[in-house]
Amino acid sequence: MAKTDDISDRILRELQRNGRISNLDLAERVGLSPSACLRRVQELERSGVIAGYRAVLSPAARGIGFVAYIGVGLGEHTKAAQNGFEKAVARAPEVVECHNVTGTIEYILRVECADLASYKTFHTDVLGTLPHVTAITSYVVMDSPKDLRA
User: Fold this and answer.
1) Domain 6-46 has CATH 3.40.50.620
2) Domains of the chain, residue spans
3) Splitting the chain (150 residues) into consecutive groups of 10 residues, what average pLDDT does each group show?
C-alpha cells in the first residue's frame, strides 16, 4: 500500500471532485508548482493509488429512473455457486455493481433500471431464475444526499 502525505491527500480529494481539472488549477488549489504537482499525480498513478479516470453519467439522461440495492443470499456456499452467480450478474446490464460480502447474505448488488416495471422484470426473470439464489431483499434508493462516486 502506497503511503500518502497531506499534499497527496489534497490532490486526491481535488481529483475525486473533478478528474478533468487542469494541472495548473490543481497545483494552485493544493499549493504546489505545476511541475511538482504533475510529478505527484504521475507518481500516484504509477503506484496504483489512482487506478483510473472515468466519466460520470447522468442517470436521468440515460433513462434510468429506478435504482435499488439488492441483498442476495445463496443456498450453497461453494465456489461453483459463487462463480455461477457472478457470471450471471456480469451478463445483466442492470447490475452496475456486485459486491461479495460477509454476514447473513453473500452479495450486494446495485441495480439501475428505467422504472419499477423493468426492475420487476429483472427481479423475476434474471435473479428469480438463478440457481442457488434463496433470498432477495431490495432496498429502493429514494435519494442520494452523499455519493462520492459522482
Assistant:
1) no
2) 6-46, 60-140
3) 86 94 98 98 97 90 96 96 97 97 97 98 97 97 86
The residue behind cell 451478463 is: 91
Beta carbons within 10 angstroms of residue 85's beta carbon:
22
Beta carbons of 137 and 105 less than 8 angstroms apart: yes
- H-helix or E-strand containing 28? helix 23-30
Write the CATH number of the domain with boundaries 60-140. Answer: 3.30.70.920
Answer whether 65's CB lies under 8 Å from 117's CB.
Answer: no
The pTM is what?
Answer: 0.82
| 69 neighbors 131 (Cβ within 8 angstroms) | no
Spatial CB neighbours of 114, under 8 Å, sequence gap ≥ 6: 63, 64, 65, 66
Q: How many CB atoms lie within 10 A of CB 113?
A: 20
**C-alpha grid cell for residue 80?**
461453483
Q: Which residues does 16 contact at the CB level (< 8 Å), separation at least 6?
A: 148
Position 145, amino acid:
P
For residue 84, give the DSSP letter: H
- Helix/strand/coil for 126: coil
